[in-house]
Write a structure and sequence with these properties.
Blueprint (H helix, E strand, L loop, with lengths): L23 H9 L4 E8 L5 E3 L20 H4 L20 H10 L3 E6 L6 H15 L8 E4 L2 H10 L5 E3 L8 H7 L6
Parallel strand pairs: 1-3, 3-4, 4-5
Antiparallel strand pairs: 1-2
Helix pairs in contact: 4-5
Amino acid sequence: MNHWPYPLWIAHRGAGKLAPENTLAAFRVGASHGWRAFECDVKLSADGVPFLLHDDTLDRTTPERGIAGHRPWSELSRTDAGGWHSRGFAGEPIPSLESIARFVQRNGHALNIEIKPTIGQERETGAAVATAAARLWHGQGVQPLLSSFEPDALATARDAQPELTRALLLEALPDGWFEQARALGCAAV
């Protein structure tokens, strides 16, 4: 990487405090406040569709219960992900990565996709998210940054789409962090 193409400041989970996190509404609110880059959390549905959600379960941000990654996209796409935040966002659906890709591309925004796999699906999620990102951003300018706390997810993302920029997320700097980031081909930590 010759230069860092992403803004240094990004809106976390869209504008996840001003609107329901990881929804298209949050991205729209963030854009209305002038944000040029966003972060979102992406996992896989039971039938392999990349979608936005931070938690493993639906419990905190929807009226549903249970592990989100165990449900098909046809069910997740109809789930209210906005009503928990406030009445004005009631009915806001869980978005797919594809719908967020269209929004950021049409508006010239950058995107940091945090690969957030359901437990036990690190490798599958890393490969699927990287492949989807490469397809969705093919010929579309600044490619998304793929990041994760899960080294296995980053390794399979690297193997699936080595041209996409990656970042290793860490809560602390353990021994060997730099070597791990280099082995994963990360441009950032």
